[in-house]
Amino acid sequence: MKLGMRKPSLNKRISARTSLKRQLVHRGGLKMPKGYGWVRNPRKYVYNKVYNKTTFDIFKVLKKLFK
Hints:
The chain is mainly alpha-helical. The chain has one domain (8-65). 63% of the residues lie in helices and 6% in strands. The protein has a two-stranded parallel ribbon. The radius of gyration is 15 Å and the shape is globular. It starts with a strand and ends with a helix.
């Protein structure tokens, strides 16, 4: 598990927003309600919960500094 700052990746950022799977889920109306990620994949939900609490995004830090 990572601890500290996340290393930004432009490729991952673009692919996350333009993936075929994301388009099918959103346009097909299969999107889960907010907060129900544990229903679809509990293991991934727990991993992401811990990861997001132990790391931080450099862009969010910069946004707060220059706000």
